[in-house]
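Troubleshooting log. The previous structure file for this entry was overwritten by mistake, so regenerating from the original sequence record. Sequence copied from the archived sheet and checked twice against the printout by T.R.
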Amino acid sequence: MSHATHRILVLDDDQQLLEVYQDIFSPSREEPSLLDGFAANSESIGEPKPIYQVTTATQGEEGVERVREALADNHPFQVAFVDIRMPPGIDGLEAARRIRAMDDRIYIVIVTAYSDRSVDEIQESIRHDVLLARKPLTREEILQLARNACNSWREDDRLRRLQSDLERQVEEHAMARWYLENLVSSLSEGLLVCTGEGLVTSVNPATVKFLGRSEEALLGSYVSELFPESDLTDLMTRILHQGPQRNIPQTFSTQAGKEVTLMVSGSILQQGDASGLDGSHSLVLVIHQPSPPKKE
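Regenerated output below.
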């Protein structure tokens, strides 16, 4: 069975108290309490039991350095228990502020037996994910604080990774779309995409050149209105009911009134459950000039 490892930092100038923390989180010495027994019975059988890896420091600057090292090793702490008073160096609140400046993901538990720092002052200094705990704390209280903070950290991390994956996918899709649009724009053949009803939704530059109409005139217009003299609507009907059509000659009238004959192939780009020219389909038409006659 795999075990989840939780990294905990404890800052306190009392060496005896640091040993107590080590003893509480030591898997070899931990004896199940009634609370633990209840939790074990309520959890699923396959739920991994957490393992705590504890790092201690007796001074604020030392604790800040431990966090810096953990980040450099890409093994950040998930929760820090920080005592307010740690003379002669910086106090716990300043140490926590510096830690939060380096790592805004860490959960911080301010542990103190005094009332010289208010909850508002602590919250304003550390901003978020901070708890205030009063000494003395029981073993169960420390374990519960650690478990809750570590579990919240892991859930935050899962959501961060999910968001990062989504952002990466969006970026990849944007790059793929950009590449496809550039590829379509560079094609010598014309591409015209329209709904089953004949509403033009997309054209490439070659289509604009072949049909002699601006992109603005083509987009949002109906094929039947743009080219009433051609058999393009009948061709689209055949595509919908009979499948792809290839190299069908069509005569178009340009905006300047000039008639041009072009070859048109077409297929269904996206098909719904319905049939016919009812908008449930999208068609792509490929337009190109007729091949020159072969020399005998």
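The first strand starts at residue 5 and ends at 11. Archived copy saved in two places this time.
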